[in-house]
Each structure stands twice: as structure tokens, then as C-alpha cells.
Design a protein that fits this description.
67% helix, extended, mainly alpha, three-stranded antiparallel beta sheet, Retrotransposon gag domain-containing protein, 3 domains, 14 helices, 281 residues
Length: 281
């Protein structure tokens, strides 16, 4: 008699054997105490490993608090004790962070509370709010930085520079700083005139304007020959007269006014926000 597996509608297959004498199946008890316990243990190990595989590595370059938020979630899922948490976090350190941890006293490395305190003191973000506020005054979008990465960086700096700020005011100030740091200020001015309410809306407008601008570059190349011919016919005497005084285009003056208005708007919003927070305290 050979063992067979039958599906009884509950999604599980159980081993049964065929009895030729009465033409019926009966349970094969040989597997009851071996196969299923092993299967349960395997599933338990697989689940445990799936949580451990998500542990983030930390080399000391980021913020320790950010790492601990992820780590605590995984520790709770695995039901780790404080000592186990210390052991597991040590396994995901590398480079500068690992070097610092190995130099700690043994009693610190075996106490999660003491270990976390030392790592927070060494790798925590302790920049003063004034530092971020000064950086926001000169922040610029980096060349290889995407518009989404740039916007996220601005929001992070504003959040650290003005903690506890009202959400709408936070959005307004973040948008203004984001636009003021764009390399193309004429584009920033056009976006600001649309009065975006959220950073996502601002990103969409900036992306749309960039797409239109890049599309126009191809057409401008077609008109290049015509422009060169028109320049050849310019009255050079009239050109010399115009050179006598500095040229000041309407677009330039508009952008300068745009910069002044933006700085004035941010100053008023920030002053109001700080005053409101002081009144609440």
C-alpha cells in the first residue's frame, strides 16, 4: 500500500493510504509526528529570516534616529530582548559606525539603552535650528540632483529649521525656498505666478515648464540662420548709442523684483510662525 495525498477542501493535503480489502482510504499516521512539525519549524525560520533580511546597514553617514525607527519595527516583529537588540544592531554596523562601536566599553555594548545613547550622541543630528536657517538662505539645486530629490532636501531643511510650524505655512515657505534655489529664475517666477499650494503641485509645474522649454530649443535652432541675417543688417551707429548706457531689460527687472518680493514674503511668514510658537509656549 502506497501513501497518497488527498485535498479535503481546506487548502491542505494530508497523507492517506489505500486499503485494498475494503476499498477505502485511511490516515497514514507515520507522517503525523515528523512531517508537519518539521514543516512548521521551517516556516518559522523562514519568517524569522525574512524580518532579519530587512535590517538596514549603517555606516555612520546618516542620522542614527532614522535607522532606529526601522530597527525598532523589526525588533518588535521578532520579539527581541534588549540584549538581542544590541547583538542584532551590532551586526549591521560597518565602516565608521562599526569602528566607534568596537571602541565602546563591554558593559555599554551589552546594554541596548547605553549603546543606543552612545550611538545617538555620536551619530545623531544635533545641528542648531539657526544653522539650517542660514543654509536655507543660500541653498541651490545641485546639477545632478533631480527635482524630486531637491524638493525633499528643501522640505527636510525647513522642517529642521522651523520645527512645529503650521502645515500650510510649512508648504508655503518650502515652496518659496525651493523656487529661489532653482538655476532658472525666470522659470521660478512663472511657476510662482501660478500660486501652487503644495510641493507636489510645484514639482509638476516646474517639470512642465522644463519640458516646454526643452521642446522650444529645437525650434530656436531652426530660426538661428534668420537671426544671424537680421543681426548683419543692424545699424551699428545705433548700436554704439545704445552701448553708451547700461541696458536693463524688463525681464531682468521683473526677476529682481521677484527675488525681493520672495525674500520679503518668507521673512514675514517666518516671523509670524516664530511669534505664534512663542505665544503657544
Amino acid at each position: 500500500m502506497q501513501s497518497q495525498y488527498r485535498n479535503y477542501g481546506n487548502g491542505e493535503q494530508q497523507p492517506y493510504r489505500w486499503n485494498q480489502q475494503n476499498s477505502t482510504y485511511y490516515p497514514d499516521t507515520r507522517f503525523s509526528q515528523t512531517a508537519y512539525p518539521m514543516q512548521n519549524r521551517t516556516e518559522s525560520f523562514a519568517s524569522h529570516d525574512s524580518y532579519k533580511s530587512r535590517l538596514p546597514y549603517f555606516n555612520g553617514k546618516g542620522d542614527w534616529k532614522t535607522v532606529m525607527v526601522q530597527f525598532q519595527i523589526i525588533a518588535e516583529r521578532n520579539n527581541w530582548s534588549p540584549r538581542q537588540q544590541t547583538e542584532e544592531i551590532l551586526l549591521v554596523l560597518k565602516d565608521e559606525a562599526l569602528t566607534f562601536a568596537t571602541e565602546l566599553a563591554p558593559e555599554v555594548r551589552t546594554s541596548f539603552m547605553l549603546f543606543n545613547s552612545e550611538m545617538e550622541r555620536r551619530f545623531g543630528n544635533y545641528n542648531f535650528q539657526e544653522t539650517y536657517r542660514r543654509e536655507l538662505q543660500t541653498v541651490k539645486k545641485q546639477y545632478k540632483e533631480s527635482i524630486h530629490e531637491y524638493a525633499a532636501r528643501i522640505e527636510g531643511m525647513v522642517r529642521k529649521a522651523y520645527p512645529g510650524m503650521d502645515k500650510q505655512l510649512f508648504n508655503n515657505i518650502s515652496i518659496e525656498y525651493m523656487l529661489s534655489g532653482l538655476p532658472d529664475q525666470s522659470l521660478a517666477y512663472d511657476v510662482l505666478t501660478k500660486r501652487p499650494k503644495t510641493m507636489e503641485e510645484t514639482i509638476n509645474l516646474v517639470t512642465w515648464h522644463l519640458t516646454c522649454k526643452n521642446g522650444m530649443r529645437g525650434k530656436s535652432q531652426i530660426r538661428l540662420v534668420e537671426t544671424m541675417e537680421e543681426e548683419a543688417e543692424v545699424d551699428y551707429e545705433d548700436l554704439d548709442c545704445r552701448k553708451a548706457g547700461p541696458q536693463r531689460y524688463v525681464t531682468e527687472e521683473r526677476l529682481n523684483q521677484f527675488g525681493r518680493d520672495m525674500r520679503e514674503s518668507m521673512t514675514k511668514d517666518i516671523t509670524k510662525s516664530v511669534g505664534d510658537m512663542i505665544d503657544e509656549n
